[in-house]
Amino acid sequence: MSIIIKSEREIAVMRQAGRIVATVLDILSRQVRPGMKTKELDVIAAGEVERLGAKPSFKGYRGFPANLCVSVNDEVVHGIPGERILREGDIISLDLGASFMGFQGDAAVTVGVGEIDSQARELMETAEGALKAGIAAAHPGARLGDISAAIQNYAESRGYSVVREYTGHGIGREMHEEPQIPNFGLPGTGPVLKKGMTLALEPMVNVGDWHTRVGDDHWTV
């Protein structure tokens, strides 16, 4: 496994790529409303990324047909935006990538459509807490498994499961670099983390079982 160490200059560019992604996700989150089609969010995402001087990363990447992944309710990741109409009480995950000055930014956010029930809110809070636990475990001298274990332990201690077939990943000039970062694992295992590594943590938290399947569009999980 070869994990690329980034220079301070490279990390500064990556921070800007990340800020662009975060800014657009915030804009999208404020646009989500009952009655809109998911493809409307894809159009907004592309326009805002370009307005901020970057390029959407996902469209055409490994054949993905859209700028934005839009996953609704029991869809975990890689949902394709289209004619689906959002309804009150849905929860929707928005996953966006952007390329800026040769480096990638990648992030996701889950938001409620109108008023959501307490279980949906708790699920979202658990996923956010798992992300924060993983980030807290990521520091020079720790091991990759410390991140995975922190995410798993946080989610499972609250009665949820973590998806095991899909992972976080390294990121840099490429969207997916080494290492893969599972959302489950044992502390004290895996590569030692070093200053300059750039990692995309991606906790995926389920109500009930952790198993998933891919839909008929060959993308939506």
UniProtKB/TrEMBL annotation:
GO biological process, one term: proteolysis
GO CC, any one term: cytosol
Keyword set, alphabetical order: Aminopeptidase, Hydrolase, Metal-binding, Protease
GO molecular-function term, one example from the UniProt record: metal ion binding
Domain Peptidase M24 span(s) in chain numbering: 13-211
UniProt-listed CDD domains: MetAP1 (cd01086)
UniProt name for this protein: Peptidase M24 domain-containing protein
Organism from which the protein derives: marine sediment metagenome
Lineage of the species this protein comes from: unclassified sequences, metagenomes, ecological metagenomes
